[in-house]
Write a structure and sequence with these properties.
Layout lengths: L1 E2 L8 E4 L2 E11 L7 E8 L5 E6 L4 E4 L2 E12 L2 E5 L7 E5 H4 L11 E7 L2 E6 L3 E8 L13 E6 L4 E5 L7 E5 L4 E7 L3
Antiparallel strand pairs: 1-6, 2-3, 2-6, 3-4, 4-5, 7-8, 7-10, 8-9, 10-11, 12-13, 12-15, 13-14, 15-16
Length: 190
């Protein structure tokens, strides 16, 4: 059992029979009042973030979660299918709303870190930086600085990002998947 003071960043626990992860927590004690822990927690099943206050009377059961490396296989009719790299027949479907904004960066054979609870796939974490091919890019005209020296391009996954004017169709660019921003050109097109 976990007490309210054990709720530190990264701890997973069960509350109302649902798994939660602590994002932030702070302990406070005011004069002549009970001590409380203010915590920002994430519902691991839905991804919703809540701000809660926990008191000494609260007791929690630690949620046993497991992280595994999976490979993205394909997307079909609102479901994203993942499998183990060593056993492609063992598949794990994840609904489109559970994938959320991360679908912008998913391409075939991308390795992701998946979080499981009671053998059910809850969430996934992409690599922070990924290399993607530019599929569409308008020409960058020298002297066009009305947009701050950037232009919008479409990547192979369908995502649109802002890149410098020198990026052309066929270039491979490195993208930060957390912020959705261009980081660098990895390979120039022939």
């Amino acid at each position: 059992m976990l007490s309210y003071t054990d709720l530190k960043k990264g701890v997973t626990f069960l509350w109302n029979d649902k798994p939660y992860e602590v994002i932030e927590s702070s302990f406070s004690r005011m004069q002549q009042r009970k001590a409380v822990v203010q915590a920002k927690i994430r519902d691991l099943a839905t991804g919703k973030i809540l701000e809660m206050s926990f008191q000494p009377s609260n007791q929690f059961v630690e949620a046993v979660t497991e992280k595994r490396t999976l490979v993205f296989r394909y997307h079909h009719r609102g479901e994203y299918l993942f499998s183990h790299s060593e056993n492609p027949r063992e598949r794990f479907p994840l609904a489109e709303d559970a994938v959320g904004d991360k679908k912008r960066w998913l391409k075939k054979d991308t390795a992701v870190t998946a979080l499981f609870f009671r053998e059910k796939l809850l969430t996934l974490t992409l690599p922070i930086k990924m290399d993607l091919v530019v599929s569409e890019a308008p020409p960058g005209i020298q002297g066009d600085r009305s947009q701050g020296g950037t232009k919008a391009v479409t990547l192979e996954t369908g995502a649109t990002i802002q890149v410098p004017l020198f990026i052309n169709e066929g270039d491979v660019v490195r993208v930060n998947t957390e912020t959705g921003e261009y980081t660098e050109r990895v390979k120039k097109s022939q």
